[in-house]
Amino acid sequence: MKLKVDESIVLELIDHHHAETLCQLVKVNRQHLREWLPWVDHMRSVDDFRKYINGSKQRYVNHTEMGYVVMANGVMIGRLGLYNIDLHNKSASIGYWLSQQWLGKGIITRCCKAVIDEGFRHLHLNRIEIRAALENYKSQAIPERLGFKKEGIIRQGEFVNNQFVDLYVYSVLKEEWNHKTQH
User: Fold this and answer.
1) Which terminal residue of the chain, N or C, has fewer Cβ atoms less than 10 Å from its own Cβ?
2) Chain-wide mean pLDDT for the chain?
């Protein structure tokens, strides 16, 4: 499954053929990514990525995740997904990362818009959240740009680089998003 974001950006549902490229992309961006992402140091081999992709595909079948690779003109540049999908409570979270050379071009913001639209229109979600570390200003800029509400702080909500970090929680509700996109 593919989700077209714009003329050059496409989100492809993660699959087995992405494992090697994804491994290489993380390897090249390891220092950049490990600052905020707790899983980076545990993902070292193509086999690690194959196992992750198997899990992601199973979570997709179980309707609890939609994990994508971000493609720019056919080149993989990052990952983005709708995670912790809870169809009963109609909620989910968005997580994302991008290769360092592609930062600052508005790509993740545009990808988030496409996934938010997908979540509200096709999955009939009511609430989507994004969490970002208090010191991760670039990641915080995404939900702020998209009009999410800052709800509060999850104290020591994630263990990254051998320390706990506090996370801001941002959310948008379907009614807010629909109202925003109609104007």
Assistant:
1) C
2) 94
